Structures
1.
Amino acid sequence: MSCNFGEKVKITIFGQSHSEAIGVVIDGLPAGKKLDMDKISEFMSRRAPGRNNISTSRKEADKPEIISGVVDGVTCGAPLCAVIKNGDTRSKDYENLRTVPRPAHSDFAAFFKHNGFNDIRGGGNFSGRMTAPLCFAGAVCMQFLQDDGIEIGAHIEKIAGVSDKRFDPVNVDFASVKGKAFPVIDDSRGEEMCRKIEEAKLDADSVGGVIECAVTGLPVGLGEPMFDGVENVISQAVFAIPAVKGIEFGSGFDGAEMKGSENNDAFSCVDGKFVTDTNNHGGILGGITSGMPVIFRVAMKPTPSIGKVQKSVNLITREDEDVCVHGRHDPCVVPRAVPCVEAAAAIAIMNLR
Amino acid sequence: MSCNFGEKVKITIFGQSHSEAIGVVIDGLPAGKKLDMDKISEFMSRRAPGRNNISTSRKEADKPEIISGVVDGVTCGAPLCAVIKNGDTRSKDYENLRTVPRPAHSDFAAFFKHNGFNDIRGGGNFSGRMTAPLCFAGAVCMQFLQDDGIEIGAHIEKIAGVSDKRFDPVNVDFASVKGKAFPVIDDSRGEEMCRKIEEAKLDADSVGGVIECAVTGLPVGLGEPMFDGVENVISQAVFAIPAVKGIEFGSGFDGAEMKGSENNDAFSCVDGKFVTDTNNHGGILGGITSGMPVIFRVAMKPTPSIGKVQKSVNLITREDEDVCVHGRHDPCVVPRAVPCVEAAAAIAIMNLR
Amino acid sequence: MSCNFGEKVKITIFGQSHSEAIGVVIDGLPAGKKLDMDKISEFMSRRAPGRNNISTSRKEADKPEIISGVVDGVTCGAPLCAVIKNGDTRSKDYENLRTVPRPAHSDFAAFFKHNGFNDIRGGGNFSGRMTAPLCFAGAVCMQFLQDDGIEIGAHIEKIAGVSDKRFDPVNVDFASVKGKAFPVIDDSRGEEMCRKIEEAKLDADSVGGVIECAVTGLPVGLGEPMFDGVENVISQAVFAIPAVKGIEFGSGFDGAEMKGSENNDAFSCVDGKFVTDTNNHGGILGGITSGMPVIFRVAMKPTPSIGKVQKSVNLITREDEDVCVHGRHDPCVVPRAVPCVEAAAAIAIMNLR
Amino acid sequence: MSCNFGEKVKITIFGQSHSEAIGVVIDGLPAGKKLDMDKISEFMSRRAPGRNNISTSRKEADKPEIISGVVDGVTCGAPLCAVIKNGDTRSKDYENLRTVPRPAHSDFAAFFKHNGFNDIRGGGNFSGRMTAPLCFAGAVCMQFLQDDGIEIGAHIEKIAGVSDKRFDPVNVDFASVKGKAFPVIDDSRGEEMCRKIEEAKLDADSVGGVIECAVTGLPVGLGEPMFDGVENVISQAVFAIPAVKGIEFGSGFDGAEMKGSENNDAFSCVDGKFVTDTNNHGGILGGITSGMPVIFRVAMKPTPSIGKVQKSVNLITREDEDVCVHGRHDPCVVPRAVPCVEAAAAIAIMNLR
């Protein structure tokens, strides 16, 4: 199924970009937890569109309405369902895309998967908008994780080839990015990234990037060998975010070029706690948490919807036909995807505990 | 659970490196298919150890014995169980590792996960040996896939920083690597890789690398949006292979540095079939197959077990203690992991159909 | 998890009796099917309360609002979410039940399961009201099943010891009960049942009963041996209906008293179709459909909420305390449970195909 | 899938009646538990055939060989796989049944499900023999449950219409049946049952019956509302046993004839523990354990394989053809099914904790 994730805390996401509403059911949350709705709203606003001139002009309140699972602000043990109304939709922008698919977009595959009955408006249920309920679920899970001392934070590691610093994988400093409107460690690199995004926008083009995420405070021993390791489960959650095309843990692809003697992390005991001196393993050994920070990086392709005229084909006439996307789109989805990656990590970790 | 994969064709893997046997149950295979056991053996021999001087000297017949699900060589619709006896085990090599974990190895996490009751011999069920039943399952699934015109092939893309050519992602040429003992497209680069592996071996060290895999012949429309997309499902399967630390689809991390106008793949209609002129999307749009070859690359860390003396810690005394691994290990697992990646792709695709 | 059912067509139910709304997500429906909303409403109205003097006086429009998965009345392949607002709630009726649980009701177990944070109002997510979204899901699934010639129908087989005729299990005659406000084959027995219900109501008591359900038009070969047989899957769905305490297939408990030579159903070939002359096996052999009608009967206990003073205990003071239920309750849930049983059968069969 | 059960402790059963072996993989068992193999053997011997003149003459050692998951007799956290060799097989007895199916047997449905490729020998994977690995899994789970004070026991409640006493559902007395070769509470009724079985045997016929099972020592709060309630999960497990056609919990079908005031169980607090004075609810309220003994009864049809000549049809010629079963079969499977029901309960409860 497309919309379900997890066994312990099961996430079910529904909706399309232009359906009446989108939402999520979260089943398996412990009862008795007072949810901090302000924190949830704050988290979701990091993903919300229309906040600045480098994101889509679509405006959405993105206000989740909790319709079950919570009584007087406290979880009651029943499945929590939250619904987010879709407001500012311009469905006419999309009708021509049904038969002339946008390059690199889901239109083409969705057309054949659903025999032409797919909801083409705004990308239907393939839309980046589906990450709004993902973020809601992530924000809720995070509040449970924080009670156990588990923190999750991400930042933009790269946009259009401009790199930020990386987290120190042994001592992750979330404070260096927390609360920033454009979450990078080195703000001067962030400014350069913004310039690249604006250039792309002016050029009716788009750019991609890389997000780095860290999870701290994890106990040793989460995850299972083989198919339910930490890497497997986080990957399954993260690839739910549209535009993600790669993921690496710890030293990742760089580590593949290192020698064992370089890449191996020596063990120590510091203040009675077993640690590693370095963290090339990204906090995961044999699929299991080592107690060190879990570190992963996610590659996001450039937004497929661009204003430039592009070559495509008419699915009915089978003739070549140019396509020019008139909808409102982000020239770079990476900044808004940062909380999405955190949310994906949160629902993954929630299911590993 | 650690050992289960898939809903349509369910794979259950069991065993430890030094248990009496390892094996796999495959449930959901259609009845009436005559299995080609020679092909299965041939496939598994690509993974088997002890075939040359750059792999472990552990010798294993790796002969799968089918104990259910097949009557007179033909699948009968009942779960297929195959068992592989463990023969050449030297369990004494490992006893000292229980309390002084090998850096970058699963020992440490397994110890805490299982309160010290984990099977330390040969890495227990975290061992690379568990990929033998994975390969058996993959080889079986591949025979069903081939009936539908689906082919899977992988090659070594990089070892120790030495790069092979990549597959042409639009017209994948499996013939360029098929049947090679050391599967690279450019054999001269392969020889250089082998030299690097031998150097590492002589130096009691190890090296990592990257494997590229392609799947051709897929129909349009496999996979589901969000959590059960092709990327999600292949990742879940591939991260089951020990030492895998990263995966990317299509242009992947490189694509994250490209502009939309560069990364987007234009559509055409050629001979009545819809195709893309380039394949940066790696055959996957919105999580769904596009009908183009699925292309992905897998980063493998250098073998953690190396002969060099390494700094570790005694988990009981909490004192620093050096560890020196005496077991038999591959200085580079990448060559033997090539069929494992193909097998992981096969079980993933089998579950997407 | 509590609220999920199925792998092929996944049903996720959410809500509590007095939460803002209740609803369901249905994932995996084929795209391109025009839903007949009138038929769905008609089906749901059979379950709705407040229609006569033998059911609860709570009035609910029970009008499902589809908020995703359908475009212009046609399924689009995205998860279908329907929400039903909760209107006529009187939450004050329930507060005293939190600490003095109603005998035979879920209050007691829910209190301990959720550490006292359970939603006590109207029974929370244990309420019979949760069968409204179940009926919606069932009504939707039924429209897909009918396209394949599969019909589902149920009737009241027994109430308060008064028995209706049973379906002829070989030639099920749905017409004998279809469209009846009080679905029995023999209306005179139905009148007697109604009298028993009214007697119980006047006496501040309640009665239980048995529902018989049939599914016709099934192909041979649905279901899997052992854990996913037709009996297993239907049972898992049917026990989701509150008050169900037993289920039997075919000759069931009566068959347990028969000899093999009596209970075995002889095979024939009639008009080119393989059939059995009798149907003691209830259309299921070895967990697999035989092509004959699937027949099962469901035992429902008398409504636990009764007006009589009952002995209970205060969970805080641990002292004996009488409980007297003031809420609005059905003296017999059996008539309203008839469509619920049909709905459970529909979602089960939908997942077996 | 046919062969998988459970999420927390996953059971995967494989094999056919006449395949080389049958077996089971149990994944998710806690590490560090010393298994009592004698107890397991003793439990399995209660199911084993050939022990007396009222069961099949097929002789099977039924000795499980543990090939993974256990080191020096102690669970190590890896999936436990046990294999049981099939010895005394007479496959020739069955070949004629492929095209002329036995009435009430799985042959017919299996033939069409698997296009005639089903393993017909001994019933293939539909055979009652598949309960041997189920019993092994149940015996293993029971040892974990007993550590937490949970006990499971069943007895023959009825055979051929002859009834045993029932357990006192409030104070279950396992001692009254434990260790008996023919487990009934009232041995005189047991003798009468045996006579009925022998009569049926002499008459080339078979008889069915009812098994009652109790689970004591359960905490309050296990299970989930709706689809994963205790009734749902136990049913899913119990219907895996061939010949089971019905199940009821607590007062079950009898309760359906009672009034609420009769069927409701009053709460009390005895010695600081909340209990009910009666146990018509069978220890389950709203799908959740109440802390009272879980009580259920299982209806088993008479063995379909009987020596009498029976009317059937040839699946190829479509002509009527008599069938006479020559294999070795139990005239009554109820006695041997008693441990199977206990085992099913054990794997169900193990997954509810």
Note: The CA atoms of residues 245 and 310 of chain C lie 22 Å apart.
2.
Amino acid sequence: MRKGQQTRRDIIRKAAPIFNQKGFEGAALSDLMEATGLEKGGIYRHFKSKEQLAAEAFDYAWETAVDCRLEGTAEIANTVDRLQQVVRNFRERRNGLVAGGCPLLNTAIDTDDGNPRLRARARCALDAWLLLLRDILEEGKARGEVRPEADVWQISTLIVSGLEGSLMLSRLQKDSDALDVVVQHLESYLETQVRARKPASEEQRA
Amino acid sequence: MRKGQQTRRDIIRKAAPIFNQKGFEGAALSDLMEATGLEKGGIYRHFKSKEQLAAEAFDYAWETAVDCRLEGTAEIANTVDRLQQVVRNFRERRNGLVAGGCPLLNTAIDTDDGNPRLRARARCALDAWLLLLRDILEEGKARGEVRPEADVWQISTLIVSGLEGSLMLSRLQKDSDALDVVVQHLESYLETQVRARKPASEEQRA
């Protein structure tokens, strides 16, 4: 039983880059067999279908991405500083990702006219990613670090749209220029439009 | 000969939504036969390979997208107003697109770890799209409508990243909320950070 679970996890981990790079349709059984070193029966003893394996591979790739993006942020006390680090991590900590780029972007595009089960996973991942940013913003409001009038829904949408869009450009252009531009824009947006203004008295002391 | 060219164009037009929705690997011969009403031989009499058909289908879908995004903009004299209309068109004129969303976003993600010929087409499309925006900005600078210090490369990158990223969100969420947020942000960014400031004397007269 324990060995079976270990094999199952290994298959997911090895299948994840195949699905993330080639998409659901593009990932051939031969690719999965080569990556895992198993025969068809050895793979599908552990999964009901290619769809189930793809869904679990997506979850694994997505958890890895979220871990990279949150790395070193929990210990940042100020919520706006923390958001700025999340934005920087999106650009800087891409080496830890499963090969093939952002699993959310890939799976969203791959499945938006297709596979509804995989699409539902991507939708959940997007909602959770937006909610995570919104929670930091709400915490910031409660602590007086984020402007009370800031629209947390709009800000989280701007951050995710900008980052995911610029990642598409950067991957196509094979350099990080677009990511650099958008990360810088978002950092400055958070600084000038989201961070609570200091009271005038403090401003003078600073 | 003339009839052959007409058939060729028909095949491209009918294959374009298949490739745009299903991707290169996902587009099966059976899908292409059903869409065109032709047998395999009838399709491949006109194209050397699936790759060639996909490349021409991409070009067709992309031209359609660019036409939608530029609709009604040529007659707008002020360059910043024109850019704002291009941004609004991205959200509002999506009905004219080949089914399946933005062909650039789809093809970039579909091919960034795959098909190099199709990837090269997507790369050309992106470069042309960025250049088109940059040309409007440069024209704006020459006419004193855009701030002289504006970085046209950065601005065009911000626009394309934001629009393409928010389209991913909107398609996954099946509503236009994310597009609305980003279009509004970009319009306001163009207004407050890109449009040349009026001289103080004019500001007072206004």
Note: The interface with chain B takes residues 21-26, 99-101, 105-106, 108-110, 112-114, 119, 122-123, 126, 153-154, 157-158, 160-166, 168-169, 171-173, 177-178, 181-182, 185 of chain A (CB under 8 Å).
3.
Amino acid sequence: MNGADALCETLLAGGIDVCFANPGTSEMHFVAALDRQPRMRCVLGLFEGVVTGMADGYARMAERPAATLLHLGPGLANGLANLHNARRARSPMVNVVGDHATYHRAHDAPLHSDIESLARPMSHWIGWAETPDSVSQTAADAIAAARTPPGRIATLVLPADAAWGETAAPLAAAPPPAAAPAVGREAIAAAAQALRGKGALLLLGGAVLRGPALDCAGRIAAATGARLMAQQSNARIERGAGRVPVSRVPYVVEHALAALAGVGTLILVGAKAPVAFFAYPGKPGTLAPPEARILTLAEPGEDGAGALAALAEELGVAAGLDPGRAGLARPAPPTGALTPEAVALAVAALMPEHAVICDESVSSGRDFFRHTATAPPHDFLQITGGAIGCGPPLATGAAIACPGRKVIALQADGSALYTAQALWTQARESLDVTTIIFSNRRYAILYGELKNVGAGDPGRNARRMLDLDDPPIGWVRLAEGFGVPATRVEDADALVRALAAALAGRGPHLIEAVL
Amino acid sequence: MNGADALCETLLAGGIDVCFANPGTSEMHFVAALDRQPRMRCVLGLFEGVVTGMADGYARMAERPAATLLHLGPGLANGLANLHNARRARSPMVNVVGDHATYHRAHDAPLHSDIESLARPMSHWIGWAETPDSVSQTAADAIAAARTPPGRIATLVLPADAAWGETAAPLAAAPPPAAAPAVGREAIAAAAQALRGKGALLLLGGAVLRGPALDCAGRIAAATGARLMAQQSNARIERGAGRVPVSRVPYVVEHALAALAGVGTLILVGAKAPVAFFAYPGKPGTLAPPEARILTLAEPGEDGAGALAALAEELGVAAGLDPGRAGLARPAPPTGALTPEAVALAVAALMPEHAVICDESVSSGRDFFRHTATAPPHDFLQITGGAIGCGPPLATGAAIACPGRKVIALQADGSALYTAQALWTQARESLDVTTIIFSNRRYAILYGELKNVGAGDPGRNARRMLDLDDPPIGWVRLAEGFGVPATRVEDADALVRALAAALAGRGPHLIEAVL
């Protein structure tokens, strides 16, 4: 076998059987090797930002890494923004970046660039498979790195001659996924002591926003009177009926300060202490009250679920205590004008059980969260790193991971235009994704921010940079161009009809909600 | 004024009056400052790869830098692939990358990343405007860096607090554009000596592919019997009737070896010694015959035009000697089947004088060059760095630079899908661009490369990564979704009609040529 075959074998043996790809010439031997491995599912993205975003969505739902295949430095560069989001989401991922043959690098051929410098900011681990004999071990190391809790971005550079050269080296095996290290007794005792007092808030991030850990956090809160909150941006939250409801730290600085006012002790469970998304003149950068004590119960890579269980035990919280799970209560479908709130109500009214909601609605989606606290149980995935263009590929990758579940993408128009090519992959793979475009024809969030900086009424240059209305994007045509059926709606009643139809069917559909 | 105002003033004083932009919150003070400066033309790209690609196309035609405005590390990352192409094209450019306020960086807010590591591989110069008082001088330095011959990528990081803070520091002025340094006498004498012998080839790159320099190269070749050739990838060539025709080093290794066979001395004039675009098992990486001597007459940053003039004088070449300019001869418009060659013939038959041809046709466009040697005079711009997705924004930026000229984009379908959003900017700015999509519904070049690696007939996984036919892209709908009228043609006669109509009108148009 050659190095490329060794890579395929090692990936498959390590449980990686999906490869999101946009290959080029230097990756052709790997493509040929993938072609000899029908167990590997190869999913093409028309642009590398789609490729890495799909791998992020896949990892969030499958809870294991996919591979990506990227073409040299520029291909990696195109994928970086969604790698940034994936890194913030702590998604495991193994990127295979093809490189020129080792001896060809010295020629500075047109596609040559400094891959290490490009990869480093968005990768936790970088490895170079410089010879055919080292490919398998490097790949096993990459898998191990990706699986390191809470999830890491591993980037493996595969020079073309390492891919095409023959190897008789034994295949290496990635070690089994490592368990997250347990939290020490001192941290648990300190958190327990804080929770015996007043004004404690458990700030949750990562895996404790799901399953028994979330229930346990709910019981601790119920028993102690502590508040529960999630970070502002979260990779995945289980919510809706039957789940313990958690609010999130608001995006707007003033709202966040208000939400955290009165907190005496902030107890971090897989979360970071909250900071402002952006700096503003005269506003604070950290959001907890200055006098609040900040305790870490569990770092993001530690066993937060185990720590919560130990904490509940330490506090003597009864296992049968009601954690305060949400009941099921849907709103009536909205009628009348089409507003962001009407979209939230329509989704809350119509979403099926166990839908996967991918939210890149930016300013338009702020009503969604509260209207769906008692919706049917669902997973809620967000843009985590602020690099827009996350949503369409995130939904695509989530749908690959969850073939039996309906994926609903709540999508700001400006952000969707970064990676609208993902619609084509949805069509090609017949994925069950309903995308709702919040078509307000502007970077709406930036109008608010421009006002925040005291710039007065926007003039021509500002409008030329913030408006998307001249010409308006024809979302129905765009979606159809990518092979996805689409509907345009201008009032809430039409939205409800279109959404009901899309959710009743299978396969991709796009609804342009003209706001 | 604040730091953002100082930046605007310094850019304008330095002759930069076009800003290609996709701003975010951290850039709002700069947006507000641009809004106070109607002399600055702000052009929105829906994605940063469009933004940097437009600035590249603009610089190639305007021969001066534009500014770009990019949002933090991820916004820069999205623009890197086309910065890579621009760097290879030696296009001058000043990128303004907004950053968090200096004191906010320590908080590792969601959009924080290592901007320096991201910027370094594609930037010749990086500067940090860390305080309001230092913004103007840093901007002046950036302009000077960008204008350094032959053209450089300058990246200026602008923290939000440097933008919003007040400054009374005097405005700095960029020095006037520096002349390219003259070539030493030894290099001219050595080249002259080589040209007095046999088997010399002048390999041209950069500005000597235009104007009097190209004429001069033609006279030297005519007087000495030397051959003329351009690099494989070139930022801009003046060609067609009235210009000295130059062939290019072929892309395919075997063709390049054949084209360069028999060369005794390769004389580089603003060019690099030719290397293979990719490495292949058993094929050489350098393309000149191993026994050929390689002389450098002028480095890319040196005064190649002056060097050629001095060389002509040294050789006693008569100023009135016929440099071998091409005559005007158009082919008949093609009829019958629609092939890549038919597209080339149709463009050659119909293109107006002084068109700007932007070529990212990849494998489909290889017939174009020879069929247009005697077409009306035109500029020919290519993808230079191999990072696909260059073409649509390149054409857009070129059209901004040349409002009176018809821009014709020859565009491979797979590559166009990287940055199709540029069509929207063409519609918004009413740019006179006719785009012809070579719609072969596959990454055709990769089929050839897969065959080259001996992979046999492609199977399911290879086809899933190389084909774009399931579903086919609906280019007419896609273009219309972006506000650009479009036509689909399936035979040469229909192409000729559609192209004639598009060229007769003004404004953007897209033709899907189904191959």
Note: The CA atoms of residues 229 and 328 of chain B lie 21 Å apart.
4.
Amino acid sequence: MDSSTAAAMVRADGYELHALAIAYGQRQGHELACATKLADALGAASFRIVTVDLGALGGSALTDEIDVPKDRDHASIGAGIPVTYVPARNTVFLAVALAAAEACGAEALVIGVNALDYSGYPDCRPEFIEAFERVAALGTKAGVEGTPIRVLTPLIAMSKAEIAAKGHELGVPFEHTLSCYDPIEQGGAWLPCGRCDACALRAKGFAEAGLMDPALGGQA
Amino acid sequence: MDSSTAAAMVRADGYELHALAIAYGQRQGHELACATKLADALGAASFRIVTVDLGALGGSALTDEIDVPKDRDHASIGAGIPVTYVPARNTVFLAVALAAAEACGAEALVIGVNALDYSGYPDCRPEFIEAFERVAALGTKAGVEGTPIRVLTPLIAMSKAEIAAKGHELGVPFEHTLSCYDPIEQGGAWLPCGRCDACALRAKGFAEAGLMDPALGGQA
């Protein structure tokens, strides 16, 4: 939901999109099938999947056999770093995206991080993004000899309701987006659990925006 | 040569070593076989190979079919960013190492970058390392809730001659190290080309240290 809305927003600003999905050993391999459909729907000029096996390193409920927390109230979500935190995940994502951007001559990376209605991950905060931009400026040929590659975070200060409304306005096919940390396979379709932090934040966002979530019918 | 000497130096300082090799699509897959032997020789407590297919992104003589420059004089080496630069390579290496370090509770990363007798890569400079340390401090649970993971660069201000002498003193098995950008396979052994920038810097280092390079006999 966040990545695809962020992508749609920069595309609406006139950027050509080169989509990148990272296969990092997440339990929901279905995310990668969604990413393929979204890249196509958003008119991406290219789409790549790069494998980085963070699952082999362990340490997270998203890649290990640790239980995903369920039924937490909104006050608890974001009040600390949850067990769904994947060690250095966005640092790895941005590093691989930086390599991809420099190899294809892209001006900027875009990432759907959000520091308002979020789960409390340190690598979603603006100060982290600024620190990464400095790495991009100092650690690449593009940064030293040309124009540093920027990191665009169009959602950073938006609420989930604003993200749902903006994505809806831009025609993002939310039926192909998956936010759930622990989806349930049912007859070949994937249903969100409806009880993890990501489901709770998403439901609140759609409700406050006065929209139906098209993914609630299950995904083929 | 640099990675293994850096590892031996921090081990001599009392650190327990957890070795990490990145399979990034480099043409010299032989590097990974060397890494396995070196981790064992250096008494590493663990050794992992993580695949990140930067080769699929293109843009470098180390992963693509671009020719590696040969027979350049020492004044030319390091005077600009060469075609052997791999886009954002050390950013990706450090990001994956940061994830590994956080997952296993390590205090620090160690990387054998060197800004003196080096090839002119932007991601070997101290200002890049400092920027990455800030990313590690702001973008991880370890940095926010505990002690930030440091990046140790014991070779950063050493000459190649000093590195050769230090590695020799610490018993680093240089016969299992491969610096060459374009090694030649000969009867199952790998021989350095002797003509690329990395071979030139290495030869100068061993010569100035008054040492023989044990890798010149070829590697099984």
Note: Residues 107 and 147 of chain B are 8 Å apart (CA to CA).
